[in-house]
Amino acid sequence: MGTKVKFCGLKTPDAVRLAAELGAWKIGFIFFPKSPRHVEVPVAAELAAVARNLGLETTAVTVNASEAELAAIVASIQPDLLQFHGAETPDHVDRMKARFGLPAMKAFSVREASDLDAVGPYRGIADFILFDAKAPRGSELPGGNGVSFDWSLLGGLQPRIDYVLSGGLTVDNIEEALAETGAPFVDVSSGIESAPGIKDPAKMRAFAAAVRRHDETQALTRESVA
Ligand SMILES: O=C(O)c1ccccc1N[C@@H]1O[C@H](COP(=O)(O)O)[C@@H](O)[C@H]1O
């Protein structure tokens, strides 16, 4: 299985179509008004319809959204995954999964080894665990900051889990990130943009190609060892 890529913060039908063409695992829509990637629900509903027609799965990314907000998002865009990128409790994530009948991804911000301890209570609840960097001081965004963290910390995860790696990934560091972590899933937002909130088709293509290169190298290495 190759590395699965989630392109996050898409705002245009062209970006959605390109993500599908590049074989993205999922795309994400940001529902957080302070973000340059924020989309209003009706716009996201149109984008989600484009994705659905192309067989591409969508993710609703929210930050401490109320149950009513989530209900409105789910009813309109019918996402395939709920991404919780705030301080949502395990109980809340569990209840939202049950209420909407959808899998959940919980984001955790990492700066030091002890930050990984926060994952424990979500094991068996969150279907996917995503690691992002801590927001820089003064940032109003809990994600989408284009900041990476010390990937070697993830080697300390006990027990080991398949996680989604995110935070400051770009075409320039994705191969190193994958070599270091072996993450089966990656999530990229600002690293495929020409300006905040503006996806750059050339960067999307280059990122997907770099992931493919990594996967091919891995496959060749496995063959030569066998
Ligand atoms: O992208 C955003 O603006 C955003 C806003 C609020 C919550 C999450 C957001 N994005 C998520 O942040 C990470 C990392 O982004 P980046 O690649 O460092 O720019 C990614 O998981 C997005 O899903």
What descriptors fit this protein?
TIM Barrel; two-stranded antiparallel ribbon; binds the ligand O=C(O)c1ccccc1N[C@@H]1O[C@H](COP(=O)(O)O)[C@@H](O)[C@H]1O; 6 helices; alpha/beta; 34% helix; N-(5'-phosphoribosyl)anthranilate isomerase
Structure description:
The chain is an alpha/beta fold. It has a single domain (4-134, 141-224), classed as Aldolase class I (TIM Barrel, Alpha-Beta Barrel). The protein is 34% helix and 21% strand. It has helices at residues 13-21, 41-53, 67-77, 90-100, 174-181, 201-225; strands at residues 4-8, 26-31, 57-62, 81-84, 104-110, 128-133, 163-166, 185-188, 193-195, 198-199. The strands form two sheets. It has an eight-stranded parallel β-barrel, surrounded by four helices. A two-stranded antiparallel ribbon has the order 9-10. Helix 1 (13-21) runs parallel beside helix 2 and helix 5 (174-181) runs parallel beside helix 6. The longest helix has 25 residues, at 201-225. It binds ligand LGQLAAA5.
Give a nutshell description of this structure:
With 226 residues, the chain is of the alpha/beta class. 34% of the residues lie in helices and 21% in strands.
